[in-house]
């Protein structure tokens, strides 16, 4: 998402501060200031819903503002000038909730009998911490396996890989390597999503009983070893040289669109990009290959979410809840997520006919019903934990540190944060 310049941000915060002092507009309506992180066409889709709400609710007027620098929300909250409602990523909920930056929603949920059982459990869990619900998820995201049908057919494959063993075979056979190790094409980028493959191997990142981070868990280690095995076939120097030649993600030169990758792990938004930038691409979408030793974990994956919350200090929390509840009801959720090409978080939304016109959604909405889709544990130090995983994962792949030592270093760095 685009960042504001300092001047633009100052104007936003000044505007918000001024608006927060106004509790009513013409006709006795309560005015709500709603900050959201989407921009461009995505912001336009949300503004349509805001207009629909304003047109159908007599006592409340919502004024939306695209504010994509999320950290500035915390500045506004601690400064006493928060918006009435805002969007965030699920990975920030626990840390913000324990800091008191988010109002718990449980009393509102109970009063209005909101059916939390209709939310996909792993998606809802990103909005909860230690028995409190601090937000509601509007959209979720996870990866599936994309494959170039023409390249697979050319290599003698009649369909995508189904198991991890097959994935390794496909990745090697689909790669094109010149003398000296120079890469012309990769079957699959070897630094693949370790969070997704951790779920494939049944791994975990946290032991709630021991209050202990578990980067040394066997399932996570297997995910790292899978990437390391693929990485070492080509070497850091060759992979870096190849990577430097790749085009921009959101363009016709996306390496999957241009045939530089035969397969890719990517999210539900990718078919919309393919339709825009590579409409002639002959591709398919398949489940993440499963571990043949644990077939009960088929259709695994790692969920991330986008959420709405009411900031601490909001001037009109009751009216904010009215809007938040309306925005996350099935009908509005379907409209919003279909427009964005994101996945809904309500089980009752998954089979909605609206998604029939969204490219690639049939595969995703079916996959979303899998009980093996999990989210990273909701923890107050979640961002620090994930940042450290990223750093050490990269170091392990590049041979700067051994696998066991790298995982130990993650634990040594993050475990002290548990007590804080």
Automatic annotation (TrEMBL):
InterPro entries given in the database record: Bact_solute-bd_prot1, SBP
Source species, domain of life: Bacteria
Signal peptide region: 1-24
UniProt keyword annotations, A-Z: Signal
One Pfam family hit: SBP_bac_1
Alphabetized SUPFAM superfamilies for the sequence: Periplasmic binding protein-like II
Keyword flag DNA damage: no
Protein name, UniProt field: ABC transporter substrate-binding protein
């Amino acid at each position: 998402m685009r960042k504001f310049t300092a001047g633009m941000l100052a104007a936003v915060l000044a505007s918000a501060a001024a608006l927060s002092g106004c509790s009513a507009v013409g006709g006795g309506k309560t005015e709500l200031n709603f900050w959201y992180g989407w921009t461009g066409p995505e912001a336009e889709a949300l503004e349509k819903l805001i207009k629909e709400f304003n047109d159908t609710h007599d006592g409340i007027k919502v004024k939306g503002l695209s504010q994509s620098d999320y950290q500035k929300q915390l500045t506004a909250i601690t400064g006493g000038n928060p918006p009435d409602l805002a969007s965030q990523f699920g990975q920030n909920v626990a840390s913000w909730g324990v800091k008191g930056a988010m109002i718990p929603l449980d009393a509102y949920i109970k009063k209005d009998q909101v059916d939390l059982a209709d939310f996909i459990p792993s998606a809802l869990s990103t909005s909860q911490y230690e028995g409190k619900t601090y937000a509601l998820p509007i959209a979720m995201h996870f990866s599936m396996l994309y494959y170039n049908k023409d390249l697979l057919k050319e290599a003698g494959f009649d369909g995508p890989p189904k198991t991890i063993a097959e994935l390794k075979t496909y990745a090697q056979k689909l790669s094109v390597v010149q003398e000296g190790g120079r890469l012309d094409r990769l079957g699959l980028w070897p630094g693949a999503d370790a969070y997704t493959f951790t779920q494939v191997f049944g791994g975990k990142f946290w032991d709630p009983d021991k209050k202990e981070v578990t980067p040394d868990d066997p399932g996570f280690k297997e995910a790292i070893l899978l990437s390391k095995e693929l990485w070492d076939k080509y070497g850091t120097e060759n992979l870096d040289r190849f990577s430097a030649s790749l085009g921009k993600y959101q363009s016709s030169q996306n390496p999957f669109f241009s045939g530089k990758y035969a397969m890719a792990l990517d999210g539900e938004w990718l078919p919309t990009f393919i339709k825009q930038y590579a409409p002639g691409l002959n591709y398919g979408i398949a489940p993440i290959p499963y571990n043949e030793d644990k077939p009960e974990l088929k259709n695994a994956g790692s969920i991330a979410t986008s959420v709405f919350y009411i900031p601490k200090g909001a001037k009109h929390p009751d009216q904010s809840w009215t809007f938040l509840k309306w925005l996350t009801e099935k009908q509005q959720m379907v409209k919003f997520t279909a427009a964005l090409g994101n996945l809904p978080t309500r089980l009752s939304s998954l089979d909605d006919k609206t998604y029939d016109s969204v490219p690639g959604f049939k595969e995703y909405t079916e996959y979303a019903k899998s009980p093996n889709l999990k989210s990273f544990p909701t923890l107050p130090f979640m961002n620090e934990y994930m940042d450290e995983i990223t750093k050490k994962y990269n170091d392990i792949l590049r041979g700067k540190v051994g696998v066991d030592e790298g995982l130990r270093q993650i634990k040594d760095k993050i475990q002290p944060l548990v007590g804080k």
